[in-house]
Amino acid sequence: MLEHEPPHSIHTGPGPDLSVCIGGIRFRNPVIAASGTFGYGREYQGLLDIACLGGICTKGLTLHPRQGNTGPRLHETPGGLLNSIGLENPGIPAFIEQELPPLRELGPVVIANLAGATVEEYREGARLLARSSVDMIELNISCPNVKAGGMAFGLDPKPAASVVQAVRKVWDKPLMVKLSPHAPDLHAVARACVAAGADALSLVNTFQGMAIDIYRRKPVFQHVKAGLSGPGIRPLALRMVWDLWEAVRVPLVGLGGIAHTADALEFLLAGAVAVQVGSATFAHPLLMPEIIQGIAAYMQQYGVAGVADLSIRSRTS
């Protein structure tokens, strides 16, 4: 058992309620497979009961197919994993036709991670997704591994808002925006996204890092820089969730380095309504079901009625 002081809420019912609501959509629990680490769900069939997850964020999707970056794409570090995938994907039309039907049958909430190089690409991608059975869009304005678009939109409030506004015009379902930890003023970007129509925010995407091959005497990655994920970024991501909770009034989904039940609980205690689990799944495919069970056990141990009651934050206005 996790030995912590019990949260404030006491539950006397038959068991804890793990369900959460984001943008009006009910998730059976707060654990979501992070984009880029779970494929389209089918890749993990046979390894775990996918139906037990709260949701699945797809690989990053763009309007047109992308081959992704050339050269090395992954490099382990002592504190995590550097990746330079470059948003390889079949394009949204092919995703809707080939990947979405079997993904839909798996059971969890389906979240399409939408990326683009221009505002028009984001808008057109969202328009196509709006005709599909996707439940929610996670608007990716924070990918560090592409030359055009991506993180560039998420560094400044105005371009961030322009993308959200363009998507909002053609997308009437819940919209979550994935934020970059590199924004000079993360709070300003977050507020701009919410003002433009975001129903929720997910944070954080990977941090930019790099590695050098000392034997080849050159950077490991062709584009030099890559996205760092894993346990090394968790304290930074957690601090950003904690700080942003005070700046906006929409649900926050926390991610970054979650590798144990205790890690997920930290984000929920900090005010996140749900968490995304990413690169740790590569090494431990059964991690997400274990975290779900661990959260339930923690709530049962301390008599916590619902996931929202885990938060140690309280609003005064």
- Looking at how many chains there are and whether they match, the oligomeric state comes to single chain
CATH class: Alpha Beta
What percent of the residues sit in helical stretches (DSSP H or I)? 25-40%
**Uncertain regions: pLDDT < 50 for 5+ in a row?**
1-12
Topology-level CATH name? TIM Barrel
What is the count of β-strands?
16
Largest sheet strand order: 3-4-7-8-9-10-15-16
CATH architecture: Alpha-Beta Barrel
Mean pLDDT: 93
**General form:** globular
Structural domains: how many: 1
Provide the structure class: alpha/beta
Q: Using only CA atoms, what is the Rg?
A: 19 Å
**Sheet having the most strands:** 8 strands, parallel, barrel
Query: How widely separated are the two ends?
Result: 35 Å
Beta-strand fraction estimate: 15-25%
Our count of helices gives: 8
